Amino acid sequence: MTQIVAKVIIGISTSALNRLFTYSIPSDLKEKLEIGSVVLVPFGKGNQLKEAYVVDIGETSEPLEFELKSISSIKDQVQVEKELIQLAYWIHKRYQSNITSALQLMLPRNIDVKTLTRKTIVIDLLQKPLLLDYMETIKTNKKLQKRNEILSFIAEIMLNTDLEKYYFLEKDILTMFSTSSSLIISMEKLGLLSRLDEAYERNINVLNTQGRTEKLDLNSEQFNAVDQIHKSMNKQEVFLLHGVTGSGKTEVYLQAIEEVLNLNKSAILLIPEIGLTPQTIERFTKRFGKIVGVMHSKLNLGERFEQWQKARNGDVKIMIGARSAIFTPFTDIGIIIIDEEHEHTYKSEQNPRYHAREVAIKRSLHHQCPVVLGSATPLIDNYYKALNNQYKLLELPSKAVTGADKDVHLIDMRQELEKGNMSVLSTDLHNAMEQALLKGEQVILFLNRRGYANSVSCRKCGFVYTCDDCDVSMTYHKNNRRLICHFCGASKPMQKTCPKCDSKYIKGFGAGTQKIETTINDLFPDYTIGRMDQDTTSRKHGHEDILSSFKHKEIDILIGTQMIAKGHDFHNVTVVGVLAADIGLNVDDFRAAEKTFQLITQVIGRTGRGAIKGQAFIQTYQPEHFAINYAIKEDYIGFYDEEILFRKTMIYPPFCHLLNIVTLSEKEYLGNDLLKECVQVIENMYIGDEDDRFMVLGPAKTSIGKIKGMYRYRVIVKGGSYKKLTLVMKELYNRKDNNTSFKQVRLTMDLNPMSLM
Known about the structure:
Number of strands: 30
Number of helices: 21
CATH class of the largest domain: Alpha Beta
Strand content: 15-25%
Helix content: 25-40%
Largest sheet: 7 strands, parallel
Number of domains: 5
CATH topology of the largest domain: Rossmann fold
């Protein structure tokens, strides 16, 4: 005997449930249930209702050992598209993640979001005579004076318009006449008005459709880029759009998307920083109106759900957002664009450890559409692929609008010290800031370190404040006089004397954005200073508020971390300063030079964008470093040629794939022992030719050996085959799960990580 059953994934992320479960389908749900439905099912011995995802529906005639449980109900408001279910399975296999975790990427985090409603007062034209008669009867009654005032206000509006119905927000009436809803309810009972719960959309506070813009004339390079992208519509192709800062990449995106809309398809635009959202959204909504949606982590659950639902229903055709926007439930994608494609934020640092670029290419295969990767400083890996015809290279080597451009100055801070200058500002940068500010121009100062002092120590005994749970020094934050660990968030109060020797010679060393803000306030007391870092933008709309103030010239000097370096277009900025260009060079990461080059190039690009010539000052103690020298010349090709030789010699991407294996354990020896076993497994798994042998580095402590009380050890595996490394991951996870000795060890693996910290 056959029966129709549903295969589901239980919505609990654990390796024990990383499989399909079979449920029968009640007769009243058979017509409604589809692949992709989100359902509630009884699960476990207690038959508690759990959320689950239907991934298959079909007949079965196999004899069952026990009676199947039935699906309890369907969550009608949410359904996963079949393509996204297939995508979840692909993520599950490619990154060796839990299938439930992969499926949860496809859905808004909380699908039980309530619809927002507000009380609305409605008066029908038929109620008008009754209302006027009632007003006449109560006009001399002093006890009903408040009621008469409200009705007089409403009647005046009715007399001056000719609508069939009149709507008033109840809260506006209550505020205007300083009364309570009980008065409105009593008037409703008399039949003078009606009250209803009106649904309304959440305000995400970034959409601006005022002052629509038209498409701009393109130069020959932009025209060629748009033309090449247009020719690839309806087929899968990956473009690398390499354009210098100010070359007009955004206009290329806009005109490519316009063609997609003409084909009645949808577009996804990924951006790396929440801070770029307001500016990007404004440009796109002014061109395309209300069909633009937005998705990023600063939206609350309700706002995210509404944006997801609008995309699914077709109310928005363009979705702009950070990494997670790649999972927008469009069924008709015509193009996927990844702006600032080199940014590490496109790689998830939590399971599933997917890269948005790889997911974008996978989705483009299904939708047969182009993917555009845009950057002034492309990833070395991707530029290599473009030069070797894996991607199609589009170049924008010149600025879209000829302006005054900029001068770039390299400042050797060792010479500043020799001259007796102990300030965070070189003499040249200080003088340039003074001159610019006197002219009403603006300044950006960049330092990629937040806080006031990056460490606090005693000059008498050498004591250093370190985190109790992490192998790092604590950062001093002056605004609340606390020491904070930037890895686990632990904090403790700053003391006036050394806790070890009781000396008063305890102070902070090094500088963060807070300290720079204090220093600049002292040096330029007559000007308004703004600071943009993780501390000042943690509240909702923090990015928008600071950038809006700077845009409207309410801030003269903006100090910030990397979130001020990218994509912003402020024509009144004529001076930028990189206060410590070498801050990211001396870290344990083979991408250190590349990241430094990218950041400096991006910061330099924030000036000289208007009619006034700009100046950039790059302060460093390593002026001879090749990454800094190529950055000040904005010479990407020169940097690429030198960096690619290093990568080839040392066998780093793009000449191999990397697998970063990390253990975390409370007992230090356990993680190290597990990795030793992992190394033996890897060496025994050697498959293929001699040239394709895995290279294994480690085990060794990570650069930060302890975080949140967990000791961290690492093994790095280099291999030529992505597929073979995924087999390694699968085997290691299985070995770890089946070895009870390592139950107290957490094992994480990341294929092609963006950072080895």
